[in-house]
Structure formats: C-alpha cells, structure tokens
Amino acid sequence: MSSDHKKTISYETYIEPDALPRVQPRTRSEQPLDNDPDESFFIRTHQAFEIWFAQILTELEYARLLLSQPPPNYVPESDVPRIEHHVRRAAAIFELIRQHLPLLETLSTTSFYNFRKYLFGASGTQSHRFREVEWLMGLLDNGLLRYTEQKLDLEHKLSPESKKPKDKVSKKRFGKRSATSYLSQSEREYDSLMQYQDQWNKKWSNDLQDFGPRDFEGMTATRKALRQRMLDIQDNGTLRGRAIQWLGRTAFPAKRSGRPHSKYSELFAEQFQDAYMVAYANDLHGLGRLEQMKSIEIKRLERDAARRARFFLNEPHRRAIVFLLQFSNQPLLAWPASLVEALLELDEAFANWRDRHIAMVSRVLGGGRISTLGAEGSGLPYLRGTLGKRVFPEIWDARSYMLSRDEAKDIYGAERLRYYGFLREKTSPSQED
After folding, report:
1. DSSP β-bridge partners for residue 252
2. Which of 80, 170, 181, 420 could form an S-S bond across to 330 if both were Cys, CB 3.0 to 4.6 Å?
3. Is the model's pLDDT at 366 over the cut of 50?
4. By mean pLDDT, which of 11-15, 25-29, 137-141, 387-391 is the weakest?
C-alpha cells in the first residue's frame, strides 16, 4: 500500500457515515410536524433494519454461490464450513433485529398517531429488501409448494374423515374456503404459501420480465430492485433450491464394500424405515398398554406411521437430511449435518422475527382503525398469515423420523460406516520423530 493511499483512508472515507440516509423535517401539505423526535426515531429505526436486510442478502448470496459450484467436483468439503458460517451469520442478524423490535415499542400509540395519518400509501410490505430476502431464501420455489401440497394430501388420506369423497389437494379446493372454516396447521401453511406465490407470480410478467405499472406506482428503485432479484433467481436459483440439489447428491454407504454413492439412497430408505417402524411399534405398544388401546387402533396407527415414513423417505434430498442428522457423529458427516442445522436455524430465526414483529405491531397499533395497507382495517391478519410459511419444512419434518443411536445401530455396521470416520493412522505418535 502506497503512502499516498494511506493518507486517504479514514473512518469518514472508509465507512462513509455521511452517505447514510439523513432524517430531516418533512414539508407536508397540511399540519407539518416540526421535526417530531418520535417520527425521526421511527424512520431511523426502519433505515437500520434496511441496512441489516442488505447484509442478510449478501450472506445468502455468498452461501448460494458456494452451493452452486458446477460438476464435476460440485461443492468441495472444505467449502461446507464456509457456507454454514454465512448461513448462521444471516440467522444471527435476524436474531439481532428481533431484539431491536422492543425499541419500537417505546413509541406510544398516541405519539405514532401524530404522524401516522400522513403515511397512507406507505407500508412496510413495500420494503424490497425484505421481499428479496424471502425470495432468495426460497419462498417462491415451486418445489416448496409441491412438498407442502403432497404432505397435506397424505394427511387428508390418513384422516378418520377420509371415508368422505377423496379429492386431491388443489388450489381451487383451498382457495374458496370460508373465513370461518377450521384450518389445521398444515392447511394454514399450505394456504399461506399458495396465496403468497400466487400474489407475486401475478405481479410478474414473464413476457415483459417486469412488474406491472399499477404495482409500486412511483417506486422506481423498488420496482428495479425486485425485477433484478427476480431475474437473478431465474438465472441462479435460490438458497433453498441449491441446498436441495446439494443434499440430493449425498453419498450413502454401499451395500457391502466399496465407496459410498448417491445411488445407495434407496437402500438406506428401506433399512431406515425398518428400524424406524420397530422403534415406533415399541413406543406405540408401551403407550397402548398405558392407555388400554384396542389392537385394531394400534394396527391402524402403525399402518399410518409406515405410510408417513415411506412418503418422507421417497425423495433423495429428504433421505439425505435424515441420514446426515442421524449419523452426524461420523467425522465426515459432521459439517454437512451442521449445515443442515444452520439452514433450520435460519428458518427459525426468520420465523421468530416475524412473530416478534407481530407482537410489536399489536402493542403499538392494536387492531383497530385503518391500516396503511388500505381501508380493510388492521394489517394484523395479513401479518399473522405469514407465520405458517417455512422455507425448509423438510428439515423440520425430519425431526419426526429420528432415532436414538441405539435404535439406529443396526442400520449400518461399523465397517460400512468406516469411510465416514477418520482414516486409521499408519504409525502411532510414539513412533514418530
């Protein structure tokens, strides 16, 4: 570094604090506020959120880049810890901004209403960085909706009410449900995700590769950013999509001897389901004796459990999730398993932020008067509807199929797992110089 260049570096030239947004008194058409400190606080807090959203996007983009490496080598083992590092940092930032939400609760409802009446037409839902985070994580992925739909369809088939006409889960069926209908957790998850994807897909024009002029009217920068992100995802995929592809290439132990390969995943599914059903039956019979269950009921539950396990283990990437988590104590599986846990941690941190944000909105705004979203009343129902969405539901669902180490010990013998352990040293430390 030259001496001249050293002289140009300072906090001001490196961090550029003067380039950050400034909050100044606004001139309004009626009853302008005189630099209300509550409004300045409200704006600056949201600007801070925007900065953190931008950093989350940077972390997720880099994790996606590392997961997108092409064949023949794909993702080197040495890159897996780096991917995990950036995913966990994104989760930590979500946790940080969740902890910042109580700051907004220092704004009293009466103080907020002093300037809220000037905000119609502006809404937090218009934050393009927050929307980009959702998209980059994978909430627009077709595979996500398909898995949720298939899971819900299976639940309906196994329901005691399945004696009624069996219609497959469809958008038409769930799109016309009355507001008073009871929704299970899975139904809420499916409905929320389906409506979200429909909403944004309708805004996007594949022919023009742009958002319609009626959307985000006057928001040139927002429309440009959303368009660029949509094109980016079409070209480069999402974090979810790349992670699913990576998981689908997981190598499983061979039948007898030989190197592990992804083609052995079906063999793992058979062996794991057998072990799972033994463990499930032991639990069920113990519970049956305690609650004096009838044998016909026990058999029905065993049959349903087998169908659920068979459904979950039907796809290679879902088998990989179970395999990695079940045998994470093997050295070469430890980092991949840790990355799977990091993806769930990211999903959980995002959901926790949403939940805490709703609590803040409820406390400051309540559920009355008119929302900045429009004249339909409070925006709380919209926010609560977002809680059912998960980007990696398969990792959450895999928890239902895990076994204890003792229950899983017969799936693979020590010899077949040898490849995933540390290589045996040829000489002992005492023989070295």
Report:
1. 261
2. 420
3. yes
4. 25-29
Q: Which two tokens stand for residue 87?
A: 């995913």
Q: Please tell me what DSSP assigns to residue 16.
A: -
Residue 259, amino acid: R
- Alpha-carbon torsion 27, 28, 33, 39, what sign? negative
Q: 83, 63 in Cβ contact below 8 A?
A: yes
pTM of the predicted model as reported, rounded to 2 decimal places: 0.87
Q: Could you give the CA distance from residue 416 to residue 412 in angstroms, rounded to a whole number?
A: 6
Please check whether residue 378 is in contact with residue 367, taking contact to mean a CB–CB distance below 8 angstroms: yes
Residue 369 DSSP class: S
Half-sphere exposure of 247 toward its Cβ, with a 13 Å CA cutoff? 26
Tell me, what's the pLDDT at 281? 94
CB 324 within 8 A of CB 84: no
- Rounded CA gap, 329 and 248, in Å? 20
| C-alpha to C-alpha distance for 281 and 14, rounded to whole angstroms | 63
- Helix ranges (DSSP H) in 11-108: 11-15, 37-67, 80-104
User: CA 141, CA 138: separation in Å to the nearest integer?
Assistant: 5
Exposure string of 202-211, with b = 16+ CB inside 10 Å and e = fewer, is ebbeeeeebb
Angle, vertex CA 155, rays to CA 290 and CA 312, nearest 5: 90
